[in-house]
Amino acid sequence: MNNWYEASIKSLIEEYFKAHGFNLTFDSSLYWDVAVENWLKNIPVESHKQFLEVSKDARSYAFNKKYGAYEYATDYRSVCPNWNSIILNEIVRLLGPLDGKKVIAVGANNGSELAIIFEKYFNTMSFDVVEISEDACKKGKELFPHMDFHCASMDEAELKEGAYDIFISLRAAYCAGNNLDFIAEKAYRSVKPGGVILFSISNGYIDVSNGAYTPIKGVYNPENNACNESETALNLGWMKESMLLHGCKEVSVVDAESEILLISKK
Fold this sequence. Notes:
Blueprint: H1 9-19, H2 32-40, H3 48-67, H4 83-95, E1 102-106, H5 112-117, E2 126-131, H6 134-143, E3 147-151, E4 164-170, H7 180-190, E5 191-202, E6 205-207, E7 214-216, E8 219-221, E9 226-228, H8 229-245, E10 252-255, E11 259-265
Parallel strand pairs: 1-2, 1-4, 2-3, 4-5
Antiparallel strand pairs: 5-11, 6-7, 8-9, 10-11
Helix pairs in contact: 1-3, 7-8
């Protein structure tokens, strides 16, 4: 049995390019637009149009294949009993009761995590979801008809300015070429004065090697096949820096067991 994270977005993007005639290596530490610019320098001009069309679909293919039918049974949150209550309590601490609040959730898959976190207030709140996986969006629309799903990359999606009480993006913003600066800026602009901006960084996986289910701490780095808490710290630093650079005055760091929260009030 293979670990789900070993079929990384990096490897799936490279798989898609190869299937369409481009044998490329994706440096997942680069923002996607920078990676595309670098690739173009070594591709014949006459192939640029074809390459740009392929690159436009490559990330969508990768995220759809990896997360379109995501298996929550082997998600690290399954061994972290308080993750959802920690997240909810942090938001309520800043906003008070959440009845009637408007949420923009970015990279939220089919919306199941939102239903779990906001269970107490769920039916009174409104949700817009930006998710790159077409299959996840389709499933979300079936599960949660009152959520509004938009299938798009989070660093390309246009968010309504000053329209939301809560911006939330869990275990997603730092993944595979997403432009953290674009995302952090959109997040800050999307919330009302006094609204909450919340990101999180993964801090664990379930290792299923040899058929055993073993919790391990850290973020998986496909560039060196490392999975440890030093990778968590690196991503945490990058995300916090982007938040502070694009409007957030203070950013609190909270351990939510399955992930590390970065939370700020506008």
